[in-house]
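User: I'm putting together a teaching handout on how multi-component assemblies are represented. Below are the sequence lines for each component of a complex, exactly as they appear in our records. Could you produce the 3D structure of the whole assembly as C-alpha cells, so the students can see both representations side by side? Please keep the chain order the same as the input.
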Amino acid sequence: MHAARDFSHYVKEVGSGLQHIDLAVEGVNCAGCMSKIERGLSAIPDVTLARVNLTNRRVALEWKQGALDPANFIDRLAELGYKAYPFETADAEAAENEQSRFLLRCLGVAAFATMNVMMLSVPVWSGNVSDMIPEQRDFFHWLSALIALPAAAYAGQPFFRSAYRALRTRNVNMDVPISIGVLLALVLSVAETVHHAEHTYFDAAIMLLTFLLVGRYLDQSMRRRTRAVAGNLAALKAETATKFVGTDEISEVPVAAIDPGDIVLLRPGERCAVDGTVVEGRSEIDQSLITGETGYVGASAGTAIYAGSLNISGTLRVRVSAASESTLLAEITRLLDNALQARSRYVRLADRASRLYAPVVHATALLTVLGWVLLGANWHDAIVTGVAVLIITCPCALGLAIPTVQTVASGAMFKAGVLLNSGDSIERLADVDHVIFDKTGTLTLPDLEVVSGTDIPKIALGLAGQLALASHHPAAAAVARAANAKSPFIGAIEESGQGVRGQIGGIEIRLGRPSFCGAERLAADCARLDPEASLVAFSFGEAQYAFSVRQALRPDARTMISGLKKRNIAVEILSGDREPAVRAAAGALGVDEWRAGVTPADKIARIEDLKRRGFKVMMVGDGLNDAPALAAAHVSMSPISSAHLSQATADLVFLGKPLAPVVAAIDFARQALHLMRQNLWLAVGYNVLAVPIAISGVVTPLIAAAAMSGSSILVMLNALRARRVAHRRSSWK
Amino acid sequence: MEVMVILVPLALALGLIGLLGFLWSLKSGQYDDLEGAAWRAIADDEPARETPTD
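Assistant: Of course. Below is the structure of the complete assembly, with chains in the same order as your input.
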C-alpha cells in the first residue's frame, strides 16, 4: 500500500490567493543549478515564484491557491536531479536571523554616522593648525553631536544590553568596558562642546562602535550559516510517519505534523520517528541509537518505543506520547538538566580577558585623574585626561581579537565537515586531552553492513541481492547494498520472521535465517569466527552461503584513534553495549581503556571523575543515552546521524561517514586558540604603547582615531593570516 | 564661508539618503542571499519573473 504524501503542514497562505512553501534542496552549489531549478520550477503552470537562495540552499515557491500539490515540486526537483524536502524554520534559526538583521541595521547606522562625523572632524583637525575660527569649530562639534548621539544610542544597543545583563548578574564581560568607554567619551564630548573646548571624541566613539559591529556581524553570520546547514540536513532526513487518519486509512505525514495521541504504523525496516507506546503488534526492535545496545529487544503491546528505534520483523501500531511521558526520557532529561547547569560555569576566554582588563584599565584612568590633580592640574583637565585614557584603551582590538579568529576558524571547520553549535566550543575544544567515544553509531556506522561471508559466485550474489531488495528486514538491506542490487526479485514471497523465497528456472532460492535456508551448520562455523554478528543465509538449490551482518566500524576509525594518540590525547570507549561487542571493537581499534554496559549516569560519573583529576574531556557520542554525558563533558561532538536530543546538546556536529573531522576539528581549534591568544597580546601590546601617551595628556582626537583603527586593522589582518594557514592545513589531509 | 550654509545641509542630506538607501536594501532582503546575488550578476539570462520577490 502506498500512502499519499501530505505536506500541507508546511504550506503557508501568503494572501491574495497565493500559497508559499520553503524547500531545503541538496546539491545546489553553483549558478548553473540556480537557474536550472528556477527555470524548471517556473515552467510549472500556476507557479508565481520560484527563487533559489544559494547561501542557505533553499527554494522559496509560491503558487495559486489550490492549483498545485507541494509534492509536485519535490518530484519535479527529483527529475532535475535534486533531492528536496519542505522546510520549516526552527525558532532558534528565526531568532538568529532577526538578530543578524538587527546587527546589520546597527552596523549601517554606525557606519554612515562615522562617515559623516569624520567628514566634520577632519576639517576641525586640520582647522586646528590652520585658520578655523572657534565659532566654526563649535558649530562642527554641535553637528557631530547631533549625528553621533542618536546613532550611538541606536547602534550601541547590542553592547549596552549585553553589558547591562552582565552587570545585573554581577559579572563583567567585554561589553562592560566597551559601554563605559563609549558613554564616557560621548558625555565628555558633549560637556567639552558646551564649554567651547578644542577637542571632542564623537568620531572615536562612533568609529569604535562601527569596528566592533563588524566583528559581531561576522561572528553572527558564520553561526547563522552553520545553523542553516544543520536545519537543511534535518529537513532532508525527510522524517515521516505513517499516521492513521481513519480506522484503516493511512497517510504519510511529516513528523512535525504528528501530535501526541495519534496512532502511527511502523512497518518492518522502518525507523520510528516519534516516541510512543506499542498498542498492537509484535516485533523485535533495534534500539542501538537510543541505548547503544546492539542486540534486538522484543516489542509487544505496552512496550515503550523511542524515536530512532529500528523495527526489525513485525508491523507495529504505536500511540504517540508527549515528550516526557516515558521513564527513560524523563531520566535522561533530568540528568541532562543537571549537566547543562554545571556547564554554564565555563568562562570564555574573552570574558576572562575582560575580567582582568576592565579593573586594570579603570584603575589606570582613576590614577591618571588623581595623579594630575596631585601634580597641580585642575579637576577639569585631569578628568579630560582620565577619560582620554579610557577612550584610547577602549577594547576595540580586544573586542575584535576573538570573533574574527572564530569566524575564520569556523569557516575552515565548516569546509572540513564540522558544524559548530556554540560559539565558545572552539576554545574549549582546543584544550582537550582526553576523548571518550561511544561505540554504537559513533565508532561504528548506524546501519548494518555485510562484514564477511563465505565465497559466493557473482551470479548467486546478484540473486541474493535481488531477493534482499524484496524484503524489509534491515539485515536484508545490508545484503542488497553489498550485492549492489538494483531491482527486487519478481515474485518473491516474504515469510514473516523467517526470510524471503523465490523460484528461478525451477530452482528454489531462499534468503533469511540460517534455519530457513537449511544452513545451520554453515552458520555455526561463521558464528564461531564472529560471535557478535547476525547471520543471513542464502540458499541456491543445494548450494548454501552465509553473510555476517553487523554495524561496521567507520572506515577511518583506526587512523583517527592513532591520530589522536599522536597528539597526546588519551582515548577511551564507554558503551552501553554488551561486553563482547565492546571488547571486539576496542581490540580492533587498539583502544586499551574501555567499559561496557555503561548507563547514562555511569557515563557522567566517569566524566566527573576525569574532570576532578584535571582532564579536559571531550565526549563523542550519538545515542539518546549519551546526551547527558555530552552535556557534562568539557566539550562534545555528535555525528549528524545521531538522536535529535544528542545533536542539540553537542557543541559540534560532524557530517558524513568518516571520523576524520574529529581530529581536524581539534587541529583547527588548537590553531584558532593560538591565534586568539596572539591577537589578545597584540591588543595588549597596543595598549602598552598607547596608554603612556594618553596618561601624559597629549592625546588629540586624531591620535585616538588613528590608534584605534590601526589596532583594529592589525588584529583583523592577523585573523586573515590564520585563514591562509588553515587552508594549507586542510589541504594536507 | 557662506557656502557652508549650502554645503553642510547638503552633506548631511547625502549621508541620510545613503543610510535610508541601505536600510531599504536591508528591508527588501538584498542581504539574504549574498552568494546567489554574486552569481546572478553574471548569469546569462534570468528566467522571467511574473511577480517581484519580497
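A couple of points students might notice: The mean pLDDT of chain B is 80. Residues 40 and 46 of chain B are 8 Å apart (CA to CA).
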